[in-house]
Design goal:
Number of helices: 5
Largest sheet: 2 strands, antiparallel
Shape: globular
Strand order of the largest sheet: 1-2
Order of helices and strands: HHHEEHH
Radius of gyration: 15 Å
Length: about 160
């Protein structure tokens, strides 16, 4: 996969946002899963995580950015998301810094697909920008929990929208 595929997917999703959220166009979760798997950040393909409990993920994979409080629940029931929202640093000095914040697409226990959609598009834009110039460094600095969050958002959109 070319390094620009992540940014191209983010751009395509941004252009299709209204149609997808209005149900006029299908959401392509598989394309998101493919980009996630090609990042090489997670130990397993993203779909392997959907059947894990929070406890299984916490013990084996998590970098502890997600708020995991219902340890016997499946990850797909998790309401917390980690949005990759900013990058700075110096690529030529191997100093790449990513910043994150928490998002909750289930305010008042009502699912808001717009929040998950924004999670995917915005995170992929930031990640894609770094990937285009420093793919190897990206694998070292990108949070596993943030990558998982993109997958969980795509899963929720595919199953709730």
């Amino acid at each position: 996969m070319e390094k620009l595929d992540t940014m191209m997917l983010a751009d395509d999703l941004a252009l299709s946002q209204d149609k997808i959220l209005n149900g006029e166009q299908d959401f392509g979760a598989e394309a998101v899963y493919k980009v996630i798997d090609n990042l090489g950040v997670l130990n397993n393909p993203i779909k392997d995580y959907f059947d894990m409990t929070e406890e299984q993920y916490y013990e084996a994979k998590s970098d502890h950015k997600l708020t995991l409080i219902k340890m016997d629940s499946k990850l797909t029931d998790l309401h917390d998301r980690i949005l990759t929202n900013h990058v700075d640093g110096f690529v030529d000095k191997d100093e790449i810094n990513l910043t994150y914040n928490h998002e909750n697409p289930y305010e008042d226990d009502l699912y808001d697909p717009t929040t998950d959609y924004r999670e995917i598009v915005y995170s992929l834009k930031v990640i894609g920008a770094v990937q285009a110039i420093a793919a190897k460094d990206l694998q070292e600095v990108l949070s596993k929990d943030a990558v998982l969050s993109i997958g969980l958002a795509a899963y929720a959109l595919a199953h709730n929208a």
